[in-house]
Structures are given as C-alpha cells and as structure tokens.
C-alpha cells in the first residue's frame, strides 16, 4: 500500500513539473486580444518634457518640464507690484490705452496680457505682455474694457488710477478677442457670454451689484469663487511636487484649451495661482456633461499641438524697444513669445492658444 501511495505521489509530481516546463517553453495561444499597454504619462519634445494628465472633474492639466533658461529675470508680477505700490496704472480717458509707471528704484515688473486692472472709469484687461523697467516713467499700454456702460467713478474707487490686479481673463474666447483679434466689441460680447455661462453653472446671478457688466466683479462673486476653489484645492499642489515645472497645458471637457510656459520654475510659480484660478473659472463655466462629446485627451495630442503651434507663420509686434512679442499662426492655433531685448532677445513668456 505504501509503495502504491508513493508511486501515485511521484506521478503527480512529475505531471506538475511537466506542466510548469511546458508553460515556459511552449508557444502561447490566446483566445482574445492582449490587455492594452499602460497609458503614457510622459513624453519628451525637443524643448520640453510633458507629464500628465492630472485631472479634477472636467479640468485636465499637463505639466511642462524643462531646465531654467540662462536668463529668466527676475521680474515682479504686476499683481505683487501693485499690492506693494511699486507700480501705478493710470486712466487716460482712452478706451483702449492706459499708462503704467514703475516707481521702483531697482525692481523690474512683468505685465502679462490678460491681467485685469480694477477701477478707473472702466475695468480693463491689458492686451500685451510688457516689461516695465525700474524708474520707467509713464509708458502707454494697450488695453480693452472688460466692463461696459460705466465711464465714471465707481463707489470710493479712484477714477484716475487703478487699485489692483488680482485676476486674469478667464476664457479662451476672451484671450482670442484681446490678443489675436484685438476687437473691443468682441471683448464685450465674450464678457457677457462668460457672465451668463457662470450664472447658469452656479445657479445664481453672478453680476456685481456696483456694476453688472464688470468681468472683475463676476470673478469676485462668492459662488464663482467657491466653485473654482474646489478645482484649486485639488490641483494647486501639483507644482510643489516637481522642481523643474516651467508651465502647464490645460483642457476642459477633454478639449485642448491653451498653455503658458516661462523660462524658469521660479517665474512660473509666481504666476501659477492666477493661471490656475482662471482655468478653474473657465471649467466652472463649462458644463461637465459636454465632456462625453470628446474622447479623452492623450499626452501625445498635447505634444503635437505644442510642436505645430510653434511652426506657424510669424509676425512681430514691437510693444516697446525693450519688449517684443512674436506671433506665429497655424491651423492648430496661435503661439505668442515675449522677448526681452535688453537681454539678447531672451524669451520670458510663451502662450499657446488652440483655435
């Protein structure tokens, strides 16, 4: 009996070993397709590395990584400069032109197209990037009204000088209206559209009491802020996890929107809070249900857009002798590059807008 038991065990062991050997040596046959490869989360372009996606609700972000450039400032953002009273922005009584003055003895200030200045005879958005040198005197700067109807003092605000610059314009359509089309009429239309979309999304009237047409007061609305804060709280720490992040690309409802890139991690981080808020507000204004109409955006598609946008036909806007803005237009979008001519034409900001 024992010999028979031992024989059975030996036979079973031999069979198991044979199966194991066959598993690793014989060709394999599948009755179904292999599982898909994991999605790529990083790609290398000629000048950047992209990572992502990072997502909350209908807002998707891809980070742009790269080394700090040989020259990257430092510049003080307009928001901080106005808070510290280093810079004054003056009303000129011209709808599409203001004046800016840097009073600092040493700090240089960077204005980014899309910055909103509050006050004056109407709230404005500044239409161009501009490097404002120390002790600049008054420099003219192109602007568009992001408020209509008012042309007088508002409450206790000064009608001759603007009080702050807390926010940026918050939709791609507004960016196009100011930077690409340069149309005041379209700016007013897009402000009204943004106000209506946000009111619908947050189920409340978001127009300001002091001025129902002001985009800035819409951005200050409690419901808008609370809704945008949900995105900001989830995504703001992304840049803290990477020391080489110099920009970001974002999509809303899986549809590619725009990108901003800077020559250093330090400069990008200065602008990140307002850039993220503007993207979050735009996401709030766009119903998440629309996401189903578009396939998930791949990181390769983002890279293809960045490369294609940089190859468009080129034109130059000499904003000042110090600040030049290059524009390249292609079928995919528009690329803007701001250069500091006091430092050999070093680029200080790149903006990509999809069509």
Which properties best describe this structure?
31% helix; 6-stranded antiparallel sheet; 8 helices; alpha+beta; 9-stranded antiparallel sheet
Write up this protein.
This protein is of the alpha+beta class and 355 residues long. It has one domain. Helix content is 31%, strand content 29%. The chain is built from eight helices and 18 strands. The chain has a nine-stranded antiparallel beta sheet with strand order 1-2-3-13-14-18-17-16-15, with helices on both faces. It has a six-stranded antiparallel beta sheet with strand order 5-6-11-9-8-12. A three-stranded mixed beta sheet has the order 4-7-10. A hairpin with a 3-residue loop joins strand 16 and strand 17. The longest helix is centred in the N-terminal third of the chain and has 24 residues, at 2-25. Residues 1-40 have low confidence and may be disordered.
